C-alpha cells in the first residue's frame, strides 16, 4: 500500500513538539524514569475528569469527538454537529421499503434492509427486531447506514415463519423522536434445515462484559493520557483509551498496540503526555478506576515514547483513518508503579501476536476495550467482520462506547484461553448508527511501524536522534 513511510516518534510522558519527517523529539522519561510522575499526575480529580477519546464521523463526512454525554465537538473544523433543527423537530423518522417484505421467503442467511429518512434533525439510529417462530423471544440488531438504506447481514435462521419490525430514532431533543414500523412476517426455508439459533445464530454480540478472562484480558488495558485543548498547547485535557501488549520479540522493552488517535493529536500536532497504562484493569480490587496502582493486579506502567505513521500526523481525521494505528514503547526498567514486581511489561501481563496478513472477511471477530461508561468492566462485541471502504474493517452491530478506542480485534478468538491474533484496533464509528471501524493492519505500514517501535533506541527518543525512514 505504501512503499515508503516517514515515522514520527516522541517521548510521551512529557510535552514535546512534532519534529518533521523521521525524527524523534526530546523530553524526560525516555528511560522510563517518568513512571512515578505519570502515576502521581493522575489524581482523583484528574481521573474523574478524563473523557473518552472517541472519534466519530457524521453523515456529511465531518469528524467529531464524542463526549461522555453524547455531545459532539468538531475535530479539526468549526461546523456544528447537530444536523437540522433539533429543537423544533417533533416528527419521527419515516420508515420505507423493507427487505424481506411481507410474505417473502429467505434462506439461513439474509441481508435485512430498510429505507429510513428524516427531514428534520436526521436519523440517529435504526434497529431491526427479529421475532422467533411461535415465540415471544426477540433479538435486536443495530443497522449500518449507506445513504438512506440501513442494513445488517444476519445468519443462522431455521425453517419456520418469522417476523420483524424496525425501530428508528432521530436527533431531536430529549432523546429524539421514535418511529416503529408494523411487524412483517416472512418464511425461512433452508432446504435441509439450518443450525440452531435465530438471527445471527448467537454469534452477534453488540456490547457485553468479557467474562472468559485469559490472555486478552491480562494483555489489554486502559490508557490514561493528556492531549492539548488548543493549538498553542497551553491547555491540556485528560483522555482514556485502550491498548494491548503486543508480542514483539524484542528484549529490554514492551510494545503496546493502540489507535493512533490515542497517541498523537492530529489537530494540535502533538503527542500525548502523562501516559499511564493499566493492564487487566478489570481485575482491580478497588471499586473502579482510581489513583491507586497498588490495587491493580500488576500495577501501572509508563511508556517512554509513542510511534505513529506520518500520514496520520500530517493529516486530520477522517482523512487519515487508514493510518489509525500506533504504538507505545515501555522500558523494562523503571516504568512500573504499584502492585507486582515490575520488570518487563510483556513478561508480567503477557502479550498477543499481531497479524499483518489479511484476516478472513465474514468470520467471527471479537473487538474488546475498556468503556468509560462500564468502568471497570472489560467489554466486547463480536460478529462476522465486513469492510468499510478500502481502508477499514467493519463490525456493523458493535456498540462499544467511548474509552474502548485502541482495543484489540481478535480473529479467531479462542474463548477457552482468551487468545488469538490481533488483526485491527477499535478506531471510529458514525454519529447516527451503530458499528465500529478498524484500520487494516494488512497491506499497510503497520508492520513497518511496529519494527520502528521495536528498533528505536531510548537514547534517540530523548536526545533528538534520527530513525531510519526506509519502509
Overview of the structural elements:
It is a single chain. The protein starts with 6 loop residues before the first strand and ends in a 9-residue tail after the last helix. 9% of the residues lie in helices and 37% in strands. The protein contains seven helices and 35 strands. Strands 1, 2, 3, 18, 19, 20, 23, 25 and 26 form a nine-stranded mixed β-sheet that branches. The protein is mostly beta strands. A hairpin with a 5-residue loop joins strand 5 (63-66) and strand 6.
Compact description:
This protein is mostly beta strands.
Summarize the biggest pleated sheet. Answer: 9 strands, mixed
Q: How does the helix and strand content classify structurally?
A: mainly beta
β-strand percent reads 35-45%
Estimate the mean pLDDT confidence: 85
Question: Helical stretch count?
Answer: 7
Residue share in helix: under 10%
Oligomeric category: single chain
Q: Would you identify the regions where 5 or more consecutive residues have pLDDT less than 50?
A: 1-5, 9-34, 193-202, 463-470
Radius of gyration: 23 Å
Number of E strands: 35
Shape annotation? globular
How many angstroms does the end-to-end distance come to?
11 Å
Amino acid at each position: 500500500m505504501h512503499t515508503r513511510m516517514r515515522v514520527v516518534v516522541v517521548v510521551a510522558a512529557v510535552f514535546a513538539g512534532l519534529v518533521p519527517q523521521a525524527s524523534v523529539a526530546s523530553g524526560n522519561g525516555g528511560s522510563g524514569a517518568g513512571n512515578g510522575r505519570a502515576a502521581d499526575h493522575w489524581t482523583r480529580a484528574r481521573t474523574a475528569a478524563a473523557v473518552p477519546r472517541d472519534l466519530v464521523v457524521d453523515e456529511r463526512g465531518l469528524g467529531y469527538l464524542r463526549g461522555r454525554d453524547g455531545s459532539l465537538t468538531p475535530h479539526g473544523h468549526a461546523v456544528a454537529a447537530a444536523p437540522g433543527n433539533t429543537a423544533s423537530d417533533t416528527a419521527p423518522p419515516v420508515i420505507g421499503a423493507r427487505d424481506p417484505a411481507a410474505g417473502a421467503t429467505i434462506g439461513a442467511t439474509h441481508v435485512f434492509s430498510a429505507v429510513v429518512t428524516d427531514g428534520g434533525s436526521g436519523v440517529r439510529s435504526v434497529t431491526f427486531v427479529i421475532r422467533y417462530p411461535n415465540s415471544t423471544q426477540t433479538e435486536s440488531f443495530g443497522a449500518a447506514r449507506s445513504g438512506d438504506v440501513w442494513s445488517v447481514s444476519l445468519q443462522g435462521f431455521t425453517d419456520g415463519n418469522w417476523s420483524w419490525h424496525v425501530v428508528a430514532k432521530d436527533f431531536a431533543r430529549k432523546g429524539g423522536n421514535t418511529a416503529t414500523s408494523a411487524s412483517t412476517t416472512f418464511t425461512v426455508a433452508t432446504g435441509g434445515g439450518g443450525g440452531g439459533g435465530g438471527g445471527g445464530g448467537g454469534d452477534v454480540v453488540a456490547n457485553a462484559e468479557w467474562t472468559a478472562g485469559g490472555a486478552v484480558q491480562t494483555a489489554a488495558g486502559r490508557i490514561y493520557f493528556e492531549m492539548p485543548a488548543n493549538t498553542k498547547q497551553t491547555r491540556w485535557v485528560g483522555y482514556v483509551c485502550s491498548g494491548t501488549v503486543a508480542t514483539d520479540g524484542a528484549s529490554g522493552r514492551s510494545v503496546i498496540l493502540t489507535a493512533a488517535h490515542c497517541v498523537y493529536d492530529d489537530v494540535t500536532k502533538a503527542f500525548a503526555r502523562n501516559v499511564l497504562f493499566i493492564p487487566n484493569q478489570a481485575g482491580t480490587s478497588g471499586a473502579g478506576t482510581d489513583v491507586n496502582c497498588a490495587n491493580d493486579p500488576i500495577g501501572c506502567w509508563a511508556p517512554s515514547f509513542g510511534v505513529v505513521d506520518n500520514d496520520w500526523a500530517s493529516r486530520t481525521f477522517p482523512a487519515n483513518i487508514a493510518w489509525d494505528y500506533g504504538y507505545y514503547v515501555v522500558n523494562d526498567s523503571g516504568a512500573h508503579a504499584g502492585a507486582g514486581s515490575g520488570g518487563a511489561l510483556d513478561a508480567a501481563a503477557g502479550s498477543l501476536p499481531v497479524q499483518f496478513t489479511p484476516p478472513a472477511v465474514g468470520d467471527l471477530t471479537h473487538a474488546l476495550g475498556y468503556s468509560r461508561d462500564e468502568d471497570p468492566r472489560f467489554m466486547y462485541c463480536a460478529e462476522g467482520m465486513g469492510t468499510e471502504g478500502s481502508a477499514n474493517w467493519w463490525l456493523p452491530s458493535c456498540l462499544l462506547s467511548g474509552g474502548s478506542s485502541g482495543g484489540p480485534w481478535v480473529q479467531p478468538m479462542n474463548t477457552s484461553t482468551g487468545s488469538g491474533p490481533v488483526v485491527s484496533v477499535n478506531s471510529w464509528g458514525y454519529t447516527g448508527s451503530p458499528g465500529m471501524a478498524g484500520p487494516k493492519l494488512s497491506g499497510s505500514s503497520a508492520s513497518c511501524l511496529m519494527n520502528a517501535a521495536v528498533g528505536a533506541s531510548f537514547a534517540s527518543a530523548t536526545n533528538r536522534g534520527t530513525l531510519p525512514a526506509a519502509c
